[in-house]
């Protein structure tokens, strides 16, 4: 079985620039979800974690998890999605987390540091990152960390929590070198790999995938973004986890079965998916 640990199905359904308010899923959108999920299942991708980047998207991830047994949600504020209302959003997250089991919230994020675009407010990004780490620690949830052009700053924040008992998570779309891979692993984190590992220019990333223990790797698409090389230019989808798994199996010279088994187990342990699946009665399944 394969798991997509980082997907944005909500963005595959809806154009947020046209409609930034939260609205429940429409019948049409539920149908689209069913198609995405059945295509994924045809490629052995049986579980999907949808990742929130702001309040409205986080609510939609919860909404999708409510409708589909094999979908789970994370809630968070992406560093590029922070406005001055952020303390209110964190408060709202706190309320949602009271019901985290029923709402199938399995992680906090994506959160982190992004220095890619000019005019970023590093101090604010750091403040919001710290707040979300606190949410994760208090709720014993995994962190989904976004770091872009900010290895040092991201690591410096995370390293402060090294000895906290519930401190865990994934470095989403890991894009750095072996040195940082080891540093994050030493903090107890796993690394998320997706389509970017298949891009011709990313040899450094392939060296990381080859060198670290398989137990430290989880698979993700970041769909609809970052399609693997074979469908470059087209929208990505959770079904492509199979492509990533096959690519990594060949890269590491290990059987596909083993890649599937170990990455799924690491994901279940990190996000507590096992615990949630046994809790089926509480879920609102249509
Ligand atoms: Zn993402």
Please write out the topology.
Layout: E1 2-7, H1 9-13, H2 27-42, E2 45-51, H3 55-67, E3 71-75, H4 86-98, H5 100-103, E4 105-114, H6 122-139, E5 142-148, H7 151-159, E6 169-171, H8 178-186, E7 190-193, H9 203-211, E8 217-219, H10 241-252, H11 256-271, H12 273-277
Describe the structure.
With 286 residues, this protein is α/β, with parallel strands linked by helices. The chain has a single domain (2-282), classed as TIM Barrel, CATH 3.20.20. It has helices spanning 9-13, 27-42, 55-67, 86-98, 100-103, 122-139, 151-159, 178-186, 203-211, 241-252, 256-271, 273-277; strands spanning 2-7, 45-51, 71-75, 105-114, 142-148, 169-171, 190-193, 217-219. It has an 8-stranded parallel sheet with strand order 1-2-3-4-5-6-7-8. Helix 6 links the parallel strand 4 (105-114) and strand 5. Helix 10 crosses helix 11 (256-271). Bound molecules: zinc ion. Residues 6, 8, 51, 110, 222 line the site of zinc ion. Zinc ion (ZN) binds at residues 6, 8, 51, 110, 222.
């Amino acid at each position: 079985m394969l798991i997509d640990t980082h997907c944005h199905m909500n963005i595959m359904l809806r154009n947020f620039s046209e409609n930034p308010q939260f609205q429940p899923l429409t019948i049409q959108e539920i149908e689209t979800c069913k198609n995405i999920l059945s295509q994924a299942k045809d490629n052995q991708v049986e579980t999907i974690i949808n990742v929130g980047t702001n309040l409205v998207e986080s609510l939609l991830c919860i909404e999708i998890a409510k409708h589909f047994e094999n979908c789970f949600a994370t809630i968070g504020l992406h560093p590029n999605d922070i406005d001055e209302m952020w303390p209110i959003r964190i408060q709202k997250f706190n309320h949602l987390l009271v019901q985290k089991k029923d709402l199938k919230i399995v992680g906090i994020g994506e959160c982190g540091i992004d220095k890619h675009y000019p005019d970023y407010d590093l101090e604010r990004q750091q403040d919001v990152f710290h707040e979300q780490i606190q949410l994760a620690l208090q709720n014993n949830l995994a962190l989904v960390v976004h770091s872009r052009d900010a290895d040092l700053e991201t690591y410096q924040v995370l390293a402060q929590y090294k000895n906290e008992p519930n401190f865990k998570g994934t470095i989403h779309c890991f894009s750095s070198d072996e040195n940082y891979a080891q540093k994050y692993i030493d903090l107890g984190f796993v690394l998320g790999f997706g389509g970017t590992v298949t891009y011709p220019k990313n040899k450094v990333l392939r060296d990381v995938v080859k060198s670290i223990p398989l137990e430290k790797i989880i698979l993700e698409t970041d769909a609809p973004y970052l399609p693997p090389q074979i469908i470059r230019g087209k929208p990505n989808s959770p079904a492509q986890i199979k492509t990533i798994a096959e690519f990594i199996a060949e890269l590491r010279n290990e059987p596909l079965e083993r890649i599937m088994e170990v990455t799924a187990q690491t994901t279940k342990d990190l996000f507590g998916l096992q615990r949630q699946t046994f809790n089926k009665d509480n879920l609102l399944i249509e």
